[in-house]
Structures are given as structure tokens and as C-alpha cells.
Design a protein that fits this description.
By secondary structure, the chain is of the alpha/beta class. It contains twelve helices and 14 strands. Helices cover 44% and strands 15% of the residues. Helix 3 packs parallel to helix 5 and helix 5 packs parallel to helix 6.
């Protein structure tokens, strides 16, 4: 990677990935792009920004040519709950955008990272320690686009030699970006409510168990898989990765170690609960560990401590 384009750069992952890539590869070598106008503090990260609508292949290609891009981190997508509300738009953005990025990469010789998700699995998938290679029959439009995206990336590698790589992210927790419409967003919202009000009403049931990851680990995974030696990769796309596993009640218990008066209640949202119930309880990420040395740095306790410390400072300055 020498010259990098990040689509969806103002989203939950993109806003932090851009900063990490600029720190590693130089500010002028990492082009952030989105269909939204960036905040002033984002522009102060001293790097180029482009307006790019990923449903417009010409805009993607123009940005790649103008900035001599060799690697594309394609993050632009609608997340799970939003995609269920707008399935037609989700297909157009999630699949159409990926197709356009892959076509540009094929024509111009770029490598491509695109994230998949635990949403690529369905209710028929083994629930515990879900294998890297297993049955995938998602019941949501988000999941359908993720499975189709995995297959499309594999196709572009096998058919055209495009260096496509990716990971299946679990729920991602961040103190920087606000939640973006995902089913696991409760694990971010809970911290804001705990610090502001010592109370949170969760839209999933107390016993809903899911894999999660702290954003610094998610960023490391995205960078590390693209830096991996190609000869070691048995799989190319959609590596299972995970870091921690908990229920809302277990997360609340960990928060109470820092905020003893915190109270959690439950009012499950039928749509998001159905989505969560179709996903694995836990993932087996041994392929990522063996093929490119994946190793998370944060567990539940260290993540909670860091989230609370950072959010206390953030909310104090609001």
C-alpha cells in the first residue's frame, strides 16, 4: 500500500481508519471520501478529501486516477437495521457500490479491502464457535449483501487477479464515532446513557450473546490483513475475527465496576432482536490467527475501562 482511497470515510470505522492509515502511510497518501460533507475537525487531519458517490463508477475512477491510488478500503454501506428498513437502497449501495469499486480495481490494478460481518451468517449456521467455512443463509438484506459481496470479491480475485481481502467484523464499539444503525449499537449507546443518566433501556434481551470488538482492534485487523504476505493466505476474503463475547447483562455488570449505580432495563425491538437471534453466539477466528497472525489487544474489562475514561473526557467537553 502506497496510495490509499477510503470510501465511507466519515462512518464509524472510516473516521478512525483514515487517521491510522495517515499516521502509518503519510497524510497526503491517504484520500478520504464520502457523500457527506466532513466536519471541520476531520479536515484538520491534514489529508485530501474527495466527494465520491460509490454508486457512480466514474466518480470512483476519477478519484483513483487523480490520486494515483493503488489500494481501496471500501467501507461505504448501509448497516443492518437501516438496511432492513430500506432493502432496495441497501442493495444498490452495498452491492452496486462494491461492484463499481471492483471494476475500477480491475481496470486500474488496485487492491481492495471490503468488510463483511457476522450478519453474513443465518439461523442455520452453527451458533457456537462458528467456523470460517460454513453454511451461510442470512435472513436480512444486509446479510444477503454481505454474502454476495464475499462471493463477488472471491470471483474478482479468481477471475481477474484483483487482490481482494476482508474480514467478518463482529459488533464494533467506539468512543469516537456515534452509532450508525447497526444491531450491535446498544454496546455503544449503553456507555453514553450510563455516564449521563446511570440508566439504559436495551433494545436486545438480557441474554443475547454476541461477539464484539473494540475499535482499535478493528482498525488493526483491517490494516493487518492488507499488509499480510499473500503467500500465507489460504482464504482471501471474509476472515472471521473477534475479540470478546458477552451479553447486555454481562456488559452492564462490567460497567457497574466503574459506575456502581448503573441500572439497565430491557425493551426488545422486534426487528433488531430477530436480526441478532439469527447471528452466531461466537466465532472461530483460528484461520485469521494462523494465516496473518491476528491477535486482539482488548478484552471486555480493558475495553470498558478505556471507553469510560475516554467518554468521560468527551462528555465533559460537550
Amino acid at each position: 500500500m502506497e496510495r490509499i482511497l477510503v470510501t465511507g470515510a466519515l462512518g464509524q470505522i472510516g473516521s478512525e481508519l483514515v487517521a491510522e492509515l495517515r499516521n502509518s502511510y503519510g497524510s497526503e497518501n491517504v484520500v478520504a471520501s464520502d457523500i457527506r460533507v466532513p466536519r471541520a475537525e476531520f479536515l484538520r487531519t491534514d489529508g485530501p478529501f474527495e466527494y465520491v458517490d460509490c454508486t457512480n463508477q466514474d466518480q470512483i475512477q476519477e478519484a483513483v486516477v487523480r490520486h494515483r491510488i493503488d489500494t481501496i478500503y471500501h467501507l461505504a454501506a448501509l448497516l443492518s437495521a437501516v438496511a432492513e428498513e430500506k432493502p432496495q437502497q441497501a442493495w444498490e449501495i452495498n452491492m452496486g457500490g462494491l461492484f463499481h469499486v471492483l471494476e475500477v480495481a480491475r481496470k486500474l490494478g488496485c487492491s481492495v479491502f471490503t468488510p463483511s460481518s457476522i450478519g453474513a451468517f443465518g439461523s442455520e449456521t452453527p451458533k457456537d464457535l462458528t467456523p470460517q467455512d460454513t453454511l451461510q443463509r442470512p435472513s436480512t438484506m444486509y446479510g444477503v449483501t454481505k454474502v454476495a459481496g464475499e462471493l463477488l470479491c472471491d470471483y474478482y480475485y479468481e477471475r481477474f487477479g484483483v487482490d481482494t481481502r476482508g474480514v467478518r467484523f463482529p459488533g464494533i464499539i467506539s468512543h469516537v464515532a456515534q452509532p450508525g444503525g447497526g444491531t450491535t449499537d446498544y454496546a455503544v449507546e449503553i456507555f453514553y446513557q450510563a455516564l449521563r443518566y446511570e440508566h439504559f433501556t436495551c433494545f436486545l434481551t438480557a441474554e443475547t450473546r454476541l461477539d464484539m470488538m473494540y475499535m482499535p482492534d478493528a482498525i488493526r485487523a483491517a490494516v493487518k490483513v492488507m499488509e499480510a504476505e499473500p503467500g500465507r493466505l489460504v482464504h482471501r476474503n471474509a476472515f472471521n475475527v473477534t475479540a470478546m463475547n458477552f451479553t447486555p447483562e454481562e456488559l452492564a455488570d462490567a460497567i457497574r465496576a466503574h459506575i456502581p449505580g448503573f441500572v439497565i432495563e430491557y425493551d426488545p425491538d422486534p426487528v433488531r432482536q430477530k436480526i441478532a437471534d439469527s447471528w452466531p453466539n461466537s466465532l472461530d477466528d483460528s484461520s485469521a490467527r494462523s494465516e496473518w497472525d491476528w491477535q486482539p489487544q482488548y478484552d471486555l474489562e480493558s475495553m470498558v475501562a478505556d471507553m469510560i475514561d475516554n467518554l468521560r473526557r468527551k462528555l465533559k467537553n460537550e
